[in-house]
Amino acid sequence: MPFTVVIIGRPNVGKSTLFNRLAGKRLALVDDTPGVTRDWRSADGHVGGLSFTIVDTAGLEDVFDDSLEARMRRQTEQALERADVALFVIDARTGITPLDRHFASWLRKGRTPVILVANKAEGKAGLPGILESFELGLGDPVPLSAEHGEGMADLVEALLPFAPKDEEPEKAAPATVALTEDGLEIPVGDQPEPEEERLRPIQIAIVGRPNVGKSTLLNSLIGQERVLTGPEAGMTRDAIAVDWEWRDRQFRLVDTAGMRRRARVEDKVEKLAVADGLRVVRMAQVVILVVDAGQILDKQDLTIARMVIDEGRALVIAINKWDTVDDRAMALRQVEDKLESSLAQAKGVSVVTISALKGKRLDALLDAVLDSYAVWNRRIPTAQLNRWLEGILDHHPPPLIDGRRLKIRYMTQVKARPPAFALFVNKPGDLPDSYQRYLIANLRDSFDLPGVPIRLALRGGKNPYVKE
């Protein structure tokens, strides 16, 4: 089993940069602004043949009230308690500060072993800070530069005593393994069996405008205060992923930053957070769009929903704070009207009313997620498709073009996730968009494909499955 390494320290000493370096990819937001990281997040870390779970935390503040900084500190303390070893990061160029001394004293009293890391130690400018760090009483510092990757060998040597005794250097994955567009590993040229697919975690992104209850929803689902919540808008910045199990199904829930209209986003950190949220949507399989019952499906909600559909993800809409609505029948009619007029490309999308704070109807939400995921994965046999196509063409043939009837010869499903179909036409460029929409609408109704995007690609030439 991999061991857990938590990165702690005061704000702006390079904790997230070190996290990204050990994770081997840019997962945590990095900026010169102090306090960018607010929730702890974890990832698989790899360095020098060692494999471990690496945890990034918010900057430590000497605050104990109910402020945001105090809540961030409590989150960091939770992460520290679960770790096998802590990397206490200081800024070698700035030197030791009173806050560093305060938290070093606190760490010495704790049960978690601590490795002192002097970051930003490239060149001679960090030497005074490295020498000064001996006074913290945490042993010899490990000088490194997380930004430039210097000193990683010394860090590996410091981590080795905490690795399991049977830890072996990581071996490269065999060439027969490929990464799909959804981030899943499957054998090349092999289709996973249904049972194998069932064992994979379903990737769920939780998105929406700021302060609609996304983080509260995640906490309520998993039954613990995993991410910070509060009345302050824009609380979440990093996309926080949590592995979780429900009814023998594995899920990976990802909480994202609130998405405001682009014209209103001026802060650099907020731009980074929104970009990170968009990346999460592209990697998700099902997206839960959380909307506020007091402002159901406003313009920004619909913009986010269209973006999810354009990315080809399955969509479920969660109307949060439903317990505060007086006229619920009127509110539901408004939702139906807005979806009918503004989101026709995902007709039949699941809408679930919930109260994240009180934990109401969360099972119904997850049932809708599983139903949408099943539709998103659905495959239709080619013979069945073409029998349906024959009936459609008899009932409503394609229009005349220059006095001649377009010929639709054949149809097949080329992929799932989302369902995508190829339509073989003698003149693909002449088939009107209106007739394509007609085909998609009938396809959705006939084969029960509600709430997911349907792709239709037009191809010329003859039926490729007929031998001449």
UniProtKB/TrEMBL annotation:
<keyword id="KW-0547">Nucleotide-binding</keyword>
<feature type="binding site">
    <location>
        <begin position="56"/>
        <end position="60"/>
    </location>
    <ligand>
        <name>GTP 1</name>
    </ligand>
</feature>
<comment type="subunit">
    <text>Associates with the 50S ribosomal subunit.</text>
</comment>
<feature type="domain" description="EngA-type G">
    <location>
        <begin position="202"/>
        <end position="377"/>
    </location>
</feature>
<dbReference type="InterPro" id="IPR003593">
    <property type="entry name" value="AAA+_ATPase"/>
</dbReference>
<keyword id="KW-0690">Ribosome biogenesis</keyword>
<feature type="binding site">
    <location>
        <begin position="208"/>
        <end position="215"/>
    </location>
    <ligand>
        <name>GTP 2</name>
    </ligand>
</feature>
<dbReference type="InterPro" id="IPR015946">
    <property type="entry name" value="KH_dom-like_a/b"/>
</dbReference>
<comment type="function">
    <text>GTPase that plays an essential role in the late steps of ribosome biogenesis.</text>
</comment>
<dbReference type="Pfam" id="PF14714">
    <property type="entry name" value="KH_dom-like"/>
</dbReference>
<keyword id="KW-0677">Repeat</keyword>
<feature type="binding site">
    <location>
        <begin position="9"/>
        <end position="16"/>
    </location>
    <ligand>
        <name>GTP 1</name>
    </ligand>
</feature>
<feature type="binding site">
    <location>
        <begin position="320"/>
        <end position="323"/>
    </location>
    <ligand>
        <name>GTP 2</name>
    </ligand>
</feature>
<comment type="similarity">
    <text>Belongs to the TRAFAC class TrmE-Era-EngA-EngB-Septin-like GTPase superfamily. EngA (Der) GTPase family.</text>
</comment>
<feature type="binding site">
    <location>
        <begin position="255"/>
        <end position="259"/>
    </location>
    <ligand>
        <name>GTP 2</name>
    </ligand>
</feature>
<dbReference type="InterPro" id="IPR032859">
    <property type="entry name" value="KH_dom-like"/>
</dbReference>
<dbReference type="InterPro" id="IPR005225">
    <property type="entry name" value="Small_GTP-bd"/>
</dbReference>
<dbReference type="InterPro" id="IPR006073">
    <property type="entry name" value="GTP-bd"/>
</dbReference>
<dbReference type="Pfam" id="PF01926">
    <property type="entry name" value="MMR_HSR1"/>
</dbReference>
<dbReference type="InterPro" id="IPR031166">
    <property type="entry name" value="G_ENGA"/>
</dbReference>
<dbReference type="InterPro" id="IPR027417">
    <property type="entry name" value="P-loop_NTPase"/>
</dbReference>
<feature type="binding site">
    <location>
        <begin position="119"/>
        <end position="122"/>
    </location>
    <ligand>
        <name>GTP 1</name>
    </ligand>
</feature>
<protein>
    <recommendedName>
        <fullName>GTPase Der</fullName>
    </recommendedName>
</protein>
<feature type="domain" description="EngA-type G">
    <location>
        <begin position="3"/>
        <end position="167"/>
    </location>
</feature>
<dbReference type="InterPro" id="IPR016484">
    <property type="entry name" value="GTPase_Der"/>
</dbReference>
<keyword id="KW-0342">GTP-binding</keyword>
